[in-house]
Amino acid sequence: MTMMSQKLAQGLDATLFPATVEKITPGAQGIHHLSIALANTHFFTPQAGSHIQIAVVDAKGNPKLNHDSLVNAPGQSQHYHIAVQAEDAGAGGSLFMHRLKAGDTVYVSAQKNDFMLHEAASPIVLIAGGIGVTPIYAMAQALKAKGAAYQLHYSVRSKNKLAFADEMAALGAQCYIADEGKKLDVSALLSAASADTHFYFCGPKGLIQAIIDTGERLGIPRARLHFELFGASPQSSDKPVDVMLRQSGKTITVPAGISILDALLAEGVDCSFGCKRGECGACAVDVLEGTPDHRDVVLTKEEKAAGKMCICISRAHSPSITLNK
User: Disulfide: which of 46, 113, 127, 174 matches 72 by Cβ 3.0-4.6 Å?
Assistant: First the structure.
């Protein structure tokens, strides 16, 4: 097995430091729980909703960064605790993580939090779908530790996909198993909530979009909808796409596994961006020709119809696409 070397890790666009895989525990089907020991100089205060970056090697042998949510309980401050689901159709980073052994060295970043839990007097509803349970599990632990009131809902396809099953039950989770005919009713859940409820949700794009669309229909302000997207991109079926830039006259071929945004940045094209997950809309540009493959969860139907596209995560159904750049 080819492990991530320090030289490869240093070539990535992130500040990383070495850490040791201390323990690996099999969890639900296809999920490994990893405890990564930090050096004494890297104690930290766990923040619910935070994630780390880990240097991995993809299926083609190239170094890349994976983002993994921390599942640390409050006070677990010398280890990064994560849960990784093997994605056979992914780019290979999760499979790299599943090949790790206790004692291996990995290169990790400090925690970063783009999914902050704002604890206030307002009611809180936590919703998780699939492996999107990881940040939600951390939030539930933090809320319970402080004695705060919350609801916890967890949806999976089958019972053997329930991650942290016992722990989630102890946190009061209501579980929905699709194969057993019990599905999460997003409309009923949001409709039953009080007008001042804040919703925190994470999971696959379908769940995220359903909650956003339902919230819009019910008139729930977007400021009360807090989310993080899992598993939207890249996809194993992705193909290279020629991106033509109308203003500069450049044509850039974007390989599969590389985002349009990253390819443009590598060529020195000035691009605005934020989350790089299709959640903030900072990278949205106008599409002049071609058919976008929208994978974001932030643009409205009207914005997409008007030709907007988030280039951090979306690609193209057509072989080429022309952007107003």
Answer: 46
Helix (H, G, I), strand (E, B) or coil at 36: strand
Pairing of strands 241-245, 308-310: unpaired
pLDDT band at 62 (very low <50, low <70, confident <90, very high): confident
- Model confidence over 234-251: pLDDT tens digits? 666 788 999 999 999 999
State the DSSP H helix or E strand holding residue 243, giving kind and residue range, or none if neither: strand 241-245
Distance separating alpha carbons of residues 247 and 233, to the nearest angstrom:
27
198 with 226: CB under 8 angstroms? Answer: yes
- Burial group, residue 163, by CB count within 10 angstroms (0-12, 13-18, 19+): buried
- Using CA atoms, how far residue 42 sits from 34, 75, 208, in Å, is 17, 14, 34
The angle at the Cα of 9, spanning 6 to 13, to the nearest 5 degrees, equals: 145
Would you say 71 and 83 are in contact if contact means Cβ atoms under 8 Å apart?
A: yes
Contact 29, 87 (CB under 8 A): no
Whole-number CA gyration radius for the chain: 20
CB 285 within 8 A of CB 303: no
Q: Would you say 245 and 252 are in contact if contact means Cβ atoms under 8 Å apart?
A: yes
- AA identity, residue 128: A
Across the beta sheet with 63-69, the strand order is 63-69, 51-57, 105-108, 17-26, 31-37, 79-85
How many whole angstroms separate alpha carbon 104 and alpha carbon 19? 8
213 vs 218: CA distance, rounded Å: 9
pLDDT, tens only, 297-320? 888 888 999 999 999 889 999 999
d(CA 71, CA 84): 11
CA terminus-to-terminus distance, the chain: 42
d(CA 226, CA 3): 36
Q: Is-contact 30 65, C-beta < 8 A?
A: no
**Of the given ranges (122-126, 226-230, 267-271), which has the lowest mean pLDDT?**
226-230
Please list, in sequence order, all residues whose beta carbon lies within 8 angstroms of the beta carbon of residue 306, skipping any fewer than 6 positions away. Answer: none
